[in-house]
Amino acid sequence: MYELGVVYRNIRRAERAAADGLAALGSATVHEALGRVGLLQPYLRPIYAGAQVSGTAVTVLLQPGDNWMMHVAAEQIRPGDVVVATVTSACSDGYFGDLLATSFQARGARALIIDAGVRDVKTLQAMGFPVWAKAISAKGTIKATLGSVNIPVVCAGAQVNPGDVVIADIDGVVVVPAAMAQQVADAAEAREANEGAKRAIFASGVLGLDYYKMREGLEKAGLRYID
Length: 227
Prior knowledge:
The chain is an alpha/beta fold. Helix content is about 35%, strand content about 20%. It is built from eight helices and ten strands. The strands form two sheets. Strands 1, 2, 3, 4, 5, 6, 9 and 10 form an eight-stranded mixed β-sheet that branches. A two-stranded antiparallel sheet has the order 7-8. Helix 1 (about 15-25) runs parallel beside helix 6 and helix 2 packs across helix 6. The mean pLDDT is about 95.
């Protein structure tokens, strides 16, 4: 059960340097470094190509067709935050557009992740404000029912706590628990360095079949080559 009608103002955010560094490593590498957990459902897609961000989560619980709490959440944003919004039941209405984006951007928000709809996409793109959303919809919302801000939420199938690190790019959205941010950043950097070395090997013409010593296993599994 969600706690309704509350705003937690003094949340503990992940360490800034670790949170900021995860953007360059990307969602796929971070997901692997985290042990293949924390990935939001792939139906959340960026509204325009090229955006790649990380930041600390400000969470929002919304009611169907009602974006009142998005305005409440704007006051809680600090520079470097990513707003993560979910709805108490499925809804694809356009909860967010250019006016809210202007407010969020002025407060220092880096992006919005929302398990619902957005609109004004052309203007959002011109503003350079990235959004990962379930839908794009011109349908507006009302302001009548309380939700909450900065409580633990489930967004697109993943648990997100206020202050967690959110990494989002074209491959998807991943959430890293705040307490694990530096550990995951170190593991992701090591993984990226290892993949860089492999990339050079594969570029030289070496096959994964040989590098990973797959041939014996494939033969035992019954793979046959026919000329």
